[in-house]
Design goal:
- This protein is mainly beta.
- It has an 8-stranded antiparallel barrel.
- It is rod-shaped and about 140 Å long.
- The longest helix has 24 residues.
- It has a single domain, classed as Porin (Beta Barrel), CATH 2.40.160.
- The chain has 2 helices and 9 strands.
């Protein structure tokens, strides 16, 4: 009796499962989503063109300079000179320079009236030196938004001879400069130098510091 009742209750359940199985098997798969070939967001960037001046392949530069030379006890005087440099490496260079200036009278000569310590020829301050320079801050300088120029801040020091007051005097020079490469063959220099030497024009040996501010234009060869 109990077995017959169980069969009677399970029969409708088996019939429902038999009908649902084919229906589930016939369910079609979900369609694939088509992806576009290009990304949805396409940024439009305008490329900026920069003209970069580069140093010519040659390693020698030469050119004139002008400036102001403050000779201790003899005033601030215009100076003219020529410099030539050889670039040993990208940062190291050697330089030869020569310049001259006509110095003023000392305050003692101006106050005393007729007293004159030096002749006109002896007042000529001229020098030549050999120096070594090193670029400590190489980089680029920008003018506007489209032009970039190679530039460098450098230190320089050397030895030489200064002719002044009728004598040749051993001289040490040192200073710093800034070089801007305007084109692949032209560079502009701005710098400060100190020429240190001793003299005894006033009766005792005296070490003098003679500062020079210079502006130069050099050509690469």
């Amino acid at each position: 009796m109990e077995a017959g009742l169980r069969v009677l209750l399970l029969a409708p359940l088996l019939a429902a499962l038999t009908v649902a199985a084919p229906a589930a098997a016939a369910t079609p798969p979900a369609p694939e989503i088509e992806r576009p070939d290009r990304p949805v967001f396409q940024p439009e960037l305008e490329r900026r063109t920069i003209d970069l001046a580069a140093i010519d392949s040659h390693d020698i530069e030469i050119g004139p300079y002008i400036g102001l030379l403050s000779v201790e006890d003899f005033g601030v005087n215009p100076v003219l000179g020529v410099r030539a440099a050889y670039h040993v490496t990208e940062d190291l260079f050697v330089e030869a320079a020569t310049g001259s200036a006509d110095t003023q009278r000392t305050s003692y000569e101006r106050l005393s009236g007729s007293a004159q310590l030096l002749t006109d020829a002896q007042r000529r301050f001229s020098y030549y030196n050999m120096s070594v320079g090193y670029n400590i801050l190489p980089g680029e300088s920008f003018i506007g938004s489209r032009h970039a120029f190679n530039s460098a801040l450098y230190l320089i020091a050397g030895i030489g001879v200064t002719t002044f007051a009728g004598s040749d005097r051993h001289t040490i020079n040192f200073g710093f400069g800034y070089r801007l490469v305007a084109t692949d063959w032209l560079a502009i220099h701005m710098g400060v130098r100190d020429y240190v030497f001793s003299h005894d024009l006033f009766g005792a040996d005296k070490t003098t510091n003679n500062l020079e501010l210079q502006l130069a234009a050099t050509w690469f060869f």
